[in-house]
Amino acid sequence: MTVEGNRVTTIFPDKQNPHTYRDFCGKGRTANRLIEHPRRITAPMKKVGQTYVEASWEEAITDIAARMRSAIEAGGPDAVGAYYGNPAGFSSSNLMFLNGWLDGVGTHNRYAVGSVDQNAVHVVADAMYGSMLMVLTSDIDNCDYFFIVGANPAVSAWNWVESAPGGWARALQRQKDGATIVVVDPVRTESAAKSDLHLAVRPGQDWALLLAMVKVVLDEGLYHRGDCADLVTQLPELQALVADVDLDDLATRCDIPVERIIDVARDFARAPRAMVVTRTGLSLHAAGTVAEWLGQVLNVITGRMDRPGGRRFERGYVDSLRLVDLAGSPSHTSRIAGRGLVAGAHALAELPAEITTPGPGQIRAMLINCGNPVVSGPDGAALDAAFADLDLLVVIDFVQRESHRHAHWLLPAVHWLERDDLPALTSGLNDQPFAQYGEAVVDPPQQAREEWAIFVDLALAMKAPLFGVRGTNGFVRATRAIARVFGRPGLAFGPHWINRLMVATSRKINGRRLTWRTLRAHPHGLILGPREYGHFRDALRTPDKRIRLAPPEFLVRTRELLAQVPSSAPERYPFVLGNQRRRHSMNSWLNELPGLHQSGRTNEVVMHHADAAELGITTGDRVRVCSPTATIELPAMLSDRPRRGMVIVDHGWGSRIFDPSGQHDPESYGANRNLLVDSAAIDPLSQTSALSDVYVQIERVPV
Q1: Does the pLDDT at position 681 exceed 70?
Q2: Strand partners, 624
Q3: In what order do the strands lie in the sheet with 180-184?
Q4: Which of 18, 369, 449, 664 has the most CB atoms within 10 Å of its CB?
Q5: What mean pLDDT comes out for the span 140-147?
Q6: What is the pLDDT of residues 518-534, one digit of tens each?
Q7: Which sign does the torsion angle of CA 350, 351, 357, 362 carry?
Q8: Could you tell me where in the chain the CATH 2.40.40.20 domains are found?
Q9: Secondary structure (3-state) at 176
């Protein structure tokens, strides 16, 4: 970064970074545009009438704390709720102290973006490996056979829960060296176009293809007998499942010829080094968890776990699994739907009813932490109406977005360019041992405050014991007093204390322990050693240290899917609604950045040429997309990439950016395709909204 007068003027990839230099995405390239956004919130703002006025932090914290205490006195701790979006997950201090505040409040009403696209990964990891954080990374540089399902790494660069910088370019290099790339996707994506084989699966039926491959591997004895005898349990239960299924039926469901399925299954099982990679595309369907599970099963039974070229367990320099064990797993059943927590949060789809349904535990005060759930989740109109019904809505963000239009308080956040941070808790998600301390490069606006500090101040003002531990608040106050007396802000308790402790107690990687001095001496980051294999078994959190291959709930759900007759599109709604990634589109959070998009500042309906011709639609026509839930309008784009009967609308558009002062009209960008989604449509195992199991009608808007 080039900085002049506390302003970032240029941003380029850091070629001295040994790990991430190969990735330079839009979030990094345009970071300075966000902190300079003309409508950025730079001080606490209180709603007065229909506009907002600036206020002091003392007034903001005092008023918010008092109103939250009133809500708790009337309805108990669960009267306070919180939602956090993706940006919060990229700051260790944010999520750590958010949960510390919520623990002090005692509320179970916690909601997160994971139920939009990610929960299946955690549910499967917990059921098979004993911990929701057992997310395995890809050993791309040694792989001979890539089987990629529901992903477009040519655009997403292989990054999702795991971080594999430049992953697609590395996979293409392996392809040049003889590796095979197979892409499973109903759309001929950028990745599919570069693959050796594209399997254009019927939308939502990836599970049937994967189950068919598991059947071939087991029936033909192609599984890795050593691992299956020594590392797994429940193999007989899995064999019993596949014995009852018919390959022809599965082939019909997924619309892939039986002969092709058999050939691919054999090739995958016989490849020296191979991996199945499953991603977001699976999670957007009601069968997403079953598909994620079957992808993991294929890796396990063919001996791809923690071996070169497969999916490996990266320990990281901080033992996050142990920390989670020490913290314990919270349990809670939601008041209306009666569902449990997934990865510490309830499903976003449940939130409107939890706000609007009277009774003990009804949410009356809500905090949104760097998120836009009205756009990210299903049926945003219902959530918007629910937010309008709250007694208190507090928002921490950079600008006022669609989900914030009913906010009573807008609190200014601090950008990662403006704060120090150590992503230690996610060190095990890198595809090689890596550490980096991120330093602020510019000062934030004078009244902006780091999120962790907001949560600490709220805990103190509400007399809610931070982290749920009595005495913590007194300790925090004491350290703040000492810091004031000696004029040394660093003496006050904060995440820097925890960062030091985590590094001091970090475990050895390749025989060496990371030190604070070493970390700070490498501002560009450092690789802690070569990739290690063989730690997976020790990391397993199952009681017998073995993989549970066929968790009963997954077997039950799979049999439910098999019992369902494959449905055709409803007569009035003949098209299934899909999603896609664009390299320069940032989901629901950054699509409003000036100059971010090379192809305009809106999304489109992508249709197959033949489907469009039957409806008299041409590229550029404005079309109406209707579901039983809602209607949106946006321009059409004709293409041969999607399957016939499928239309694609990008997720993450349709938000507005408001001017809190009320002097200017809101700025609007694209159409929100998730308005078309019924919030009742979910994956029952992961509680993820079935955002791509929606059938719609398309019609041309008359000129």
Answers
A1: yes
A2: 633, 699
A3: 197-199, 180-184, 145-149, 274-278
A4: 369
A5: 98
A6: 999 999 999 999 999 99
A7: positive
A8: 571-700
A9: helix
Task: Compute the distance between CA of residue 635 and CA of residue 625 in angstroms, rounded to an integer.
Answer: 10
Residue-wise over 522-546: b if at least 16 C-beta within 10 A, else e? eeebbbbeebbeeebeebbbbeeeb
239, two tokens: 């064999």
571-700 has which fold?
Barwin-like endoglucanases (2.40.40)
Q: What's the whole-number average pLDDT of the chain?
A: 94
Residue 171, class by beta-carbon neighbours within 10 Å (0-12 exposed, 13-18 middle, 19+ buried)? buried
pLDDT, tens digit, 9 for 90 and up, residues 26-84: 778 888 988 999 999 999 999 999 899 999 999 999 999 999 999 999 999 999 999 99
CA 32/CA 293 separation, integer angstroms: 40
What pLDDT does residue 179 have? 98
39-116+322-527 has which CATH code? 3.40.50.740
Classify domain 135-312 at the CATH topology level.
Dimethylsulfoxide Reductase; domain 2 (3.40.228)
What is the C-alpha separation between 611 and 694, in angstroms, rounded? Answer: 17
For the chain, residues classed under CATH 3.40.228.10 are: 135-312
Portion of the chain with pLDDT greater than 70, in percent? 98
Q: Which structure tokens are listed for 203?
A: 């939308």
Residue 595 confidence class, pLDDT cut points 50, 70, 90:
low
Q: Which residues does 534 contact at the CB level (< 8 Å), separation at least 6?
A: 306
Q: Which two tokens stand for residue 106?
A: 């005692």
